Amino acid sequence: MSRLIRIGTRDSQLAMWQAKTVQSQLEQLGHKSVLVPVKSTGDIVLDKPLYELGITGIFTKTLDIAMLNGDIDIAVHSLKDVPTVLPKGIVQAAVLKRGNINDCLVFKKNEEFLSQRDAVIATGSLRRRAQWLNRYPTHTVTDLRGNVNSRLEKLENNDWNAAIFAAAGLGRLGIKPENAINLHWMIPAPAQGAVMVAALEEDEEILTICAEINHRETEICTSIEREFLNRLEGGCTAPIGAICYINKEEEVNFKGILLSKDGTRKIEVTKVVPLGKHDKLAEFCADYIIGKGGRTLIDQLQRSDKTTNIYSTKTLTEAQLELFHRDVVAESNDAIKISLNRIPKSVVRNEIKNVIITSQNAVEALLTSFSVPELQFKNIYCVGRRTKRMIEKRIGKVAHMASNAKKLAEYLVEYIDGTEVTYFCSDLRLDDLPNILTENHIKVNEVEAYQTKYDAIKVEQNLDGIMFYSPSTIESFLKQNKANGIAFCIGETTANIARKYFEDVRVAKVPTVESVIELVNEYYI
Asked: Are 439 and 460 within 8 A, CB to CB?
């Protein structure tokens, strides 16, 4: 073969090792080659912009451009760094036999920190960070970047307990730290430990040559891992791990994992199929992860890279967060904290003819202070469907429910049985209900069932809107923040207060958190 194969490579020590390995295998088969280190793309010009070619990989972009410009014939990469979708005109030509797949922990003194509550571990990988925090949630993970030697130097010069490396990278550079252990429990990155050769799709001669050094078993396994990654990733950088191998029984074994960035959530899948029946393995495993909550987790990961545009003054559940429009990046925190009071026994010593309960907090306070048989209430009047549902489930039948306190007061003025009510309320409450009743000669006995404490946080971002659930959530929020954006309110009582501060106030159709979310979504449609 007279053609001289130009092998493109980055000029780092590890990249040069990989390129020389490819060169050695080619030359053993009688093919001549030369290494072409490619350092910068500043003076390279293409006829088409990079986005049209699909060039995205931070570690592969320079070589992709050089190959498309005809400066090199093949490019050598660490396969785990290669985007799952290659640029137009470039294909995977070969994968060498895989090396060590494990992640490796290099520590400074000893391994005692593994059993301690506090330790500092360094890594620049989201996947390693998430898996470490999942296993050691009280540890601190700090960022670490650079080539292998510079990262080892940073470990030595900083007050860290350990750092995580790819075992293959250490081995290929001949670095064997005394204090190091393989992390067999940590699922590696898809295609970790594999070296890949890329070439132009139209260069049939080069593709034929590269096929001679291709390791079929490694190709099968890494292709499954990368397809799994592609089906889950959806364009976002996520903590995803995958490992696939073929055992002596010719069975393809796969294990995949998806985590939240902080490691608090983990979804795993394991599957074994006969070799030859593995075509749908990646699809099956990705679908399994998605079905177990992976889609929600990936959506949250994608949103985490965006700026918050909606703030909720009540902590939202995961199920509620799933309801938002895809353009919404919501942050939530309880703007008020509730402290239940101990209600004196004398309050319920005798049967109470008319009782008013305007929140679920008052129900909780009553049930904390008394047993159900002690709550001898003849007529119970309440505000809100959920409060009604809670009362009827835990105390007794509700005589009448209104959507807000003012409407309840207007109903009682006309239909109350008697001229006296007992109102279980908060230390912070609006005056509408007691004022209307008093003006109409109905005596109101107020019992402070719970205390409402302002606990809002300062929100740094410019928001499109804020979700409010009571007048007190508005007051609390405004103690720390300015009234900017839209006020999305759970009901008219809350909206009336919001109108004092916000120009744009919108009210949910029904007084539920889900209805407020629906109101937010309407804004983004």
From this structure: no
Nearest to 354 by CA among 405, 418, 401, 421: 421
Q: How far apart are the first and last CA of the chain?
A: 62
Active site residue 143: no
Confidence of residue 83 (pLDDT cuts 50, 70, 90): confident
Q: What single DSSP character describes residue 113?
A: G
Beta carbons of 100 and 184 less than 8 angstroms apart? no
Taking the CB of residue 212, how many other CB atoms lie within 10 A of it?
13
- 256-280 pLDDT, tens digit per residue, is 999 998 899 999 999 999 999 999 9
Structure pTM? 0.60
Tell me the residue type at 58. Answer: I
* Sheet with strand 103-107: strands edge to edge: 140-142, 120-122, 162-166, 103-107, 180-183
Crossing angle for the helix pair 13-28 and 148-157, to the nearest 10 degrees: 150
Q: What is the mean pLDDT of residues 213-233?
A: 94
The interaxial angle of helices 360-369 and 385-394, nearest 10 deg, is: 20
What does the angle CA 493 – CA 498 – CA 499 come to, to the nearest 5 degrees? 100
What residue ranges define each of the domains in the chain, with the CATH number in brackets? 1-95+192-214 (3.40.190.10), 103-182 (3.40.190.10), 216-304 (3.30.160.40), 306-335+455-524 (3.40.50.10090), 337-454 (3.40.50.10090)
* Phi then psi dihedrals of residue 290, to 5 deg: -60, -40
Q: Is 148 exposed, middle or buried (0-12, 13-18, 19+ CB in 10 A)?
A: middle
Question: In DSSP terms, which residues pair with 199 in a beta bridge?
Answer: 74, 91
Neighbouring CB atoms inside 10 A of 431's CB total 9
Closest CA to 136 of 262, 1, 306: 262
CA distance 279 to 267: 22
pLDDT of residue 39: 65
Distances (CA, A) of 266 to 119, 187, 297, 301, 376: 22, 12, 9, 13, 48
What does the CA dihedral 94, 100, 103, 104 come to, rounded to 10 degrees?
A: -140
User: What is the 3-state composition of the chain as percent helix, strand, coil, each rounded to the nearest 5?
Assistant: 35, 25, 40
Report how far residue 477's alpha carbon sits from residue 230's, in angstroms, rounded to the nearest whole number.
42
Instruction: Please give the pLDDT value at position 48.
Output: 43
Tokens of 299: 């959506």
Percentage of the chain exceeding pLDDT 90: 69
| Tens of pLDDT, residues 126-179 | 899 999 999 999 999 998 877 888 889 999 999 999 999 999 999 999 998 889
Burial 102-128 (b: 16+ CB within 10 A, else e): bbbbbbeeeeebbeeeebebbbebbbb
Q: How remote is the C-alpha of 388 from its chain's centroid?
A: 35
Q: Is-contact 60 77, C-beta < 8 A?
A: yes
Q: Find the farthest-apart pair of alpha carbons in the chain and give their distance in angstroms, rounded.
A: 108
Residue 85, token pair as written in the block: 């979708």
Out of 71, 81, 203, 432, the active site residue is 81
